[in-house]
Amino acid sequence: MKKLINAVDQVENQMISGMVKAYPHYLTKLNCGNVVVRTEKKSGKVALISGGGSGHEPAHGGYVGTGMLDAAVAGAVFTSPTPDQIYEGIKEIATDKGVLMVIKNYTGDVMNFEMAREMAEMEGIKVEQVIVNDDVAVDNSLYTVGRRGVAGTVFVHKIAGALAETGADLEEVKEVAEDVIANVRSMGMAIRPCTVPAAGVPGFELKDDEMEVGIGIHGEPGTHRETLKTADEITDMLLDKILADLDYSGAETAVMINGAGATPLMELFIINNRVADVLAEKGIKVYKTFVGEYMTSLEMEGFSISILRLNDRLKELLDAPADTPAFKA
Amino acid sequence: MKKLINAVDQVENQMISGMVKAYPHYLTKLNCGNVVVRTEKKSGKVALISGGGSGHEPAHGGYVGTGMLDAAVAGAVFTSPTPDQIYEGIKEIATDKGVLMVIKNYTGDVMNFEMAREMAEMEGIKVEQVIVNDDVAVDNSLYTVGRRGVAGTVFVHKIAGALAETGADLEEVKEVAEDVIANVRSMGMAIRPCTVPAAGVPGFELKDDEMEVGIGIHGEPGTHRETLKTADEITDMLLDKILADLDYSGAETAVMINGAGATPLMELFIINNRVADVLAEKGIKVYKTFVGEYMTSLEMEGFSISILRLNDRLKELLDAPADTPAFKA
Amino acid sequence: MDAKKITEILHALSSKIDKEKEFLTELDNVIGDGDHGINMARGFKAVDAKIDTLETEDIGEILRTAGMTLVSTVGGASGPLYGTAFMKAGMTMSKKTQISLSDFLACLNAAVEGVKMRGKSVQGEKTMLDAMIPALEAMNKAIEQGLTSADVLKCGTEAARQGVEYTKTIIATKGRASYLGERSIGHQDPGATSFTNMLEAVYDYITA
Amino acid sequence: MDAKKITEILHALSSKIDKEKEFLTELDNVIGDGDHGINMARGFKAVDAKIDTLETEDIGEILRTAGMTLVSTVGGASGPLYGTAFMKAGMTMSKKTQISLSDFLACLNAAVEGVKMRGKSVQGEKTMLDAMIPALEAMNKAIEQGLTSADVLKCGTEAARQGVEYTKTIIATKGRASYLGERSIGHQDPGATSFTNMLEAVYDYITA
Ligand SMILES: Nc1ncnc2c1ncn2[C@@H]1O[C@H](COP(=O)(O)OP(=O)(O)O)[C@@H](O)[C@H]1O
Ligand SMILES: Nc1ncnc2c1ncn2[C@@H]1O[C@H](COP(=O)(O)OP(=O)(O)O)[C@@H](O)[C@H]1O
Ligand SMILES: [Mg+2]
Ligand SMILES: [Mg+2]
Ligand SMILES: [Mg+2]
Ligand SMILES: [Mg+2]
């Protein structure tokens, strides 16, 4: 394992400390595990909290700030945070307007957030939640606990965060978050695995000419493994699944080409070159494109495509001002 | 070579096309090689142009927009662009106020930009240039052509671009760019090499426990190769060289922790955690920190630290609005 | 049985889990993400430390504290599940300083309900419930038959072990293993195994 | 010698460079970044195509066009250097339809001045100049002695080859090789080598 770290049991807290020291005007760390909140607490608005395991940087701390999240909670690498951490975050940011939890659909995440919610509700804090499940790779069948939440989550933060900033009610903010979830689909792939520091060995292995299609953001297996293809062919494969899952015809969309962590930006742009052409050909209008690292998997090499079907309201909220370390609009 | 590309001779143009398709409101591509200019040409201001080989994304196209560059020119991967490309860029953006070229100190870059300048001057365009040489790794001795230009270049784009946006004269803009150059120092290292697509093999090789210290942004050798150390030890080593080269005592600074391309953000934050502590201990105040990928080297794994000594004017210009695909302030 | 004994039993669970740590992790490696033993051992180590600081006769408080400690140190799926199980058990014992065998079964019943509620799961989904529910049923039956505490617990551990065997035969439809679909068949569930380990520890304690 | 012959000579340079491509690249691998042969071959291929489209008797225009083509297709350090060399040579031949031996030397002189100006370099820095300058001096001396064109060029290529040998003995202080410091000693300069190749091609053409 070749990593730029100090000790495997220090990566999470040194990461959070380094993040807070980089952006003190945006972020303040609570004294209860790796929880960051807005340095300037905003009142009179619904407060948003999200989080998950560490290793997805800039998610989730990078999205704390004006127009997005009010708090982010980071568990151990690829492990859900515990309810008490989440609860402390909720308590710190709660306003009269209530709190919305944005959860990615993993058993551990859902349970830990829900427990935190119960704890907060016992204190009289109004809490609602939405569960993001944008990954179309593994089908939502009898044998799964539903689809996984991946990079589309960032659109939920952006859009629900923008509405919350206007002072909208908890129900409205939850409703728009669910509107985003209903309209966003994602799928990813990888050509090189990542290594959880505490594990010390790669999460999976690929041959020199192999790729894993439909991979999750913790390196979970996807639909299948096959011989590496060209960027255009891979892009077409992912787009096919995404476009088959939701009717985007005639719609305006927001597109995110998300790097898994070790993918050069050059390659993400080459992929976007194809995405733009295919969507144009199909008459799907791209209103805005995001290319970069939004929801990573340590040093995994690969990418995901997320496509959000917009309506006038989502469009307006996507464009609304946001000022966070990792997302500015 | 395992890469998400279509063909080795297509990487540069598909990258630029993908970038322009992602950000059409910011970028327009000229019909003469890989040159991008602002979609909305700004008149009445000094126009800034920069560039270099491809493979450093988001540099340089990502910095074209309000408050930074007016044009960026991309050569083949790690190869200086040719004068005619640069010249077309200059012609497109030139205003009565003149054009400033921001060049990184490589023989090829300097010569190609200077030829473009001569061509432009023959057309009556007023052109000045600055040469960025912030890399403290290889000493500026008899046996070198001076220091290399690396990630500190982004501060030059930001600050000179901000002044240009105010309508300042060419001489003033050049002077502030030189002020940045005089006050910024950088140094990098790597734990894994990158592969130039056309070459097909890594630019160098490192053993499982080795690192290259003082590496350049094209993977050029630095000061030495040694056994991999902890993130804190490596950070201290780079900081020592940077802080010995310029007197930062008592100064306010801007810090950039730049990922080489494949380095997880988690590790960059762990490095910043140490940088912030060391600078605090030495009484060097950090006014602003930038953590991310600003000047990359394809999928090289490593990072560089840049520290800019600020004065009131540089501070104000660093804070001035910027709206480009890769840098927003 | 008083608060002191309950504290001793919790320490016994902790050392049992620590002993089984590697095996549980190996099981989770096959159909999960290979951290169940590590997660559980970390949590019970924290419980060890925490309960020794408690100065209370209230068994409910001790169990609730153990649950909250698990919740705040285990993480992942098993943290909230076992945490909830112990907290719910603790609630049935609120303010009580003695615990009887039927109290114990009421605790286990509350624990099962807690896991079902928290995990939105039922029997037959290849989870810890596939050991917990049969164990509870067997013990309820044994108590009706008037067996001794030791024999009741013996029936319970027997049933739990059979439950673990049963998990080998079914497809996971909850938790990480569910992504494997049919490939999860043939492997025993780590959570069902760790529950069985705990029940064994209780049996060993009262028969020692 | 007229425009047609100059065009033929340029094609001869191109095929010579193409033949030496691998060797030049190998040399650059050792003390540079291993692209000199590739860069030069790409540039001369473009020159090949470009000059055939020219319909002019003006030798100056042909040389300038070759130079501009090199500049816009080679990139890196050698693109501007050789490009400038050819363009400066072309300027001395502006509007001329015949080229004499002394015209050729004037061209070479302008080329040397162009490289020095563009590269901010002088003799002894382990660059193409270490072949160009000795070749020019030797040919100037030979022409004063009244030798034939062929013999003058022979003296030039001889001197260029010696210049290449000399580059092995010195430290690079310009270009990428300069970062190697003392480690650049013992290796011949790629640019000095490619210049010598071109001069050899001219000699071969006029003696063929
Ligand atoms: N929804 C659920 N209901 C009941 N038990 C569950 C559920 N999901 C997972 N489990 C149990 O949790 C165990 C896995 O725990 P652990 O490995 O610690 O957490 P994670 O799956 O988050 O890594 C499984 O073996 C199973 O017994
Ligand atoms: N300043 C300079 N003056 C003269 N020649 C130079 C100078 N810098 C480099 N060269 C020549 O250029 C050659 C390298 O060319 P090439 O490999 O094509 O470009 P690059 O170094 O940009 O990769 C060197 O061998 C040397 O002869
Ligand atoms: Mg597990
Ligand atoms: Mg886990
Ligand atoms: Mg070279
Ligand atoms: Mg080169």
Report on this structure:
- The complex is a heterotetramer, with 2 copies of chain A (329 residues) and 2 copies of chain C (208 residues).
- Chain A contains 8 helices and 12 strands.
- Chain A has helices at 11-22, 83-93, 107-122, 153-165, 170-183, 231-245, 265-281, 312-319; strands at 27-29, 35-38, 47-54, 71-77, 99-104, 127-132, 184-192, 210-213, 224-227, 252-259, 285-292, 301-309.
- In chain A, the strands form 2 sheets. A 6-stranded mixed sheet of chain A has the order 1-2-4-3-5-6, with helices on both faces. A 6-stranded mixed sheet of chain A has the order 9-8-7-12-10-11.
- Chain A is α/β, with parallel strands linked by helices.
- In chain A, β1 (27-29) and β2 form a beta hairpin.
- The two termini of chain A are 37 Å apart.
- Chain A folds into 2 domains: 11-183, Rossmann fold (3-Layer(aba) Sandwich); 184-319, Dihydroxyacetone kinase, domain 2 (Hypothetical Protein Tm841, Chain: A,domain 3).
- Chain C has helices at 3-31, 36-51, 59-74, 78-92, 101-119, 129-144, 149-167, 190-207.
- Chain C has a single domain, classed as DhaL domain (Serine Threonine Protein Phosphatase 5, Tetratricopeptide repeat, Alpha Horseshoe), CATH 1.25.40.
- By secondary structure, chain C is mainly alpha-helical.
- The mean pLDDT of chain C is 94.
- Chains in contact: A-B, A-C, B-D.
- The interface between A and B is large, with 59 and 59 residues.
- The complex binds adenosine-5'-diphosphate (2 copies) and magnesium ion (MG) (4 copies).
- One magnesium ion (MG) is lined by residues 33, 35, 76 of chain C.
- Chains C, D: Residues 4-204 form the DhaL domain.
- Chains C, D: It is an enzyme of class 2 (transferase).
- Chains C, D: InterPro entries: DhaK_L_YcgS (IPR012737), DhaL_dom (IPR004007), DhaL_dom_sf (IPR036117), Dihydroxyacetone_Kinase (IPR050861).
- Chains C, D: It catalyses: dihydroxyacetone + phosphoenolpyruvate = dihydroxyacetone phosphate + pyruvate.
- Chains C, D: Homodimer. The dihydroxyacetone kinase complex is composed of a homodimer of DhaM, a homodimer of DhaK and the subunit DhaL.
